[in-house]
Amino acid sequence: MDMHTEIRDFTVTVTKKEVVVAAQFPNQEHWLPLSNLDMCLVPSLDFSLYFCYTKPTCGDNWTFVSKVEVLKKALAKALVPYYALAGEIVPNSMGEPEILCNNRGVDFIEGFADIELQNLNLYRVDETIGCKLVPKKKNGMLAVQATGFKCGGLMVACTFGHKIMDGYPASMFLTSWAEIAQSKPFSSLPTFRPSLLNPRIPGSFDSSLENLYIPIASFHPIKEPNLGGNNFVSRGYIVKANIINQLQSLASTNECKRTKVECFSALLWKIIAKRGTADKNISKLGLLVDGRTRIGRGDEEKTKILASYFGNLWSLPYGSKTVDDLIDKPLSWVANEVHGIGESAKTSEHFLGLFDWAAAHRSVPSLPKIYAYGSREGPALVVSSLLRLPLSKVQFGWGRPTCVSAYFPWGGDAGYVLLVQSPSGNGDWVVYMYILKEELELIECEAGHMLRPLTLRYFNEIEQEPLVRSKM
Length: 472
What we know:
Elements: E1 12-20, E2 30-33, H1 36-41, E3 46-53, H2 64-78, E4 88-91, E5 97-101, E6 106-113, H3 129-133, E7 142-149, E8 154-161, H4 167-181, H5 209-212, E9 213-215, E10 232-239, H6 241-251, H7 260-272, E11 282-287, E12 289-290, H8 300-307, E13 314-315, E14 318-322, H9 323-328, H10 331-343, H11 348-360, E15 366-368, H12 369-373, E16 380-385, E17 403-407, E18 415-421, E19 429-436, H13 437-447, E20 452-453, H14 456-460
């Protein structure tokens, strides 16, 4: 990969730190309990979403200072309905974590980077985004960093506490924040009702859930989970729409047309399986499935409420296949297997059973099995999609984001891939990978013709990057 115009060695100077509180807040603080899913299944991780805005071609009276003022004022107003994000997690009288809604506020960092935005290396994400441009969340539920660039561009990066939310409510909040910045009404408001995920009485769940989610105290691993992730690296890519369409045609048959996500996941699964060995000859693939549209059971009112539910509401089913099958069988066969993994969790009964399971295991911290021990028997990967979320609508008044992506080195024992729709609206994908170096080498060698390094010059159509090759 030619890096002659991309810069990794640059400095971000922090110019200001402050705490933004909600513009209005009740006189009395109150407690918001976590759901059983939040309590039981979600490790204490943070994830980040970032938005790149090039300097507007018109309306040059936008300065970094004026943009930041808009961001902070709108944030204070957005925190009124999203009051939980202005709180903090503390133990309650039972010793369990709860959100103390006390308007502690959101840490807001301002900085300046001595580099032009278009020269930022978004391919080697650890060395640029991870080190200097996404805020480290030390307190509270959310941290924001606004970074100005020499060219007049801007990056807005937000780090969320995964313990209280997944990508869906993060997108809701970001959209609302942008709407209030443009004096628009909120298109949606959050629902803080963990009781929506309460178990049934009597509860019941399928035994298959015992294989997906493991109470940490119930078994003794051969080795500790790879929470350090020392052999993992983060990378950012663009996948063109025509490439995705070609892959879908290749992985589908006349009888079964598979989704684009299923086909892309199948390709990655087939490739990483080649890292299997004689004693590690099983490969796993997990798919993150959102439950908000799965459990209404035809109840329109409940479906509407769940659509705005603020919290974690997902399942992580996975499948296991021999590396020989994944390597030798056609891509369409692998895509069918991927389809089966997702379908196993796309039912109301699956999620209702998951609520019952989480309630029964509330007192014992658990982890998704593929997260904690995914690669014990061989290569493992989890694919998550934010393709349906309107992240391109996060516009604060100076135009749509040029690029939207994520930074989430989750530290699990499986690789992680996140798909985001390109804000250009042409069907391209922005792909974030947190993956083992050996598997990255395989992917770039086998699928280098499908992946382009993530760069803002690509979006600006200034020049096309060469295709990624197997160089590390």
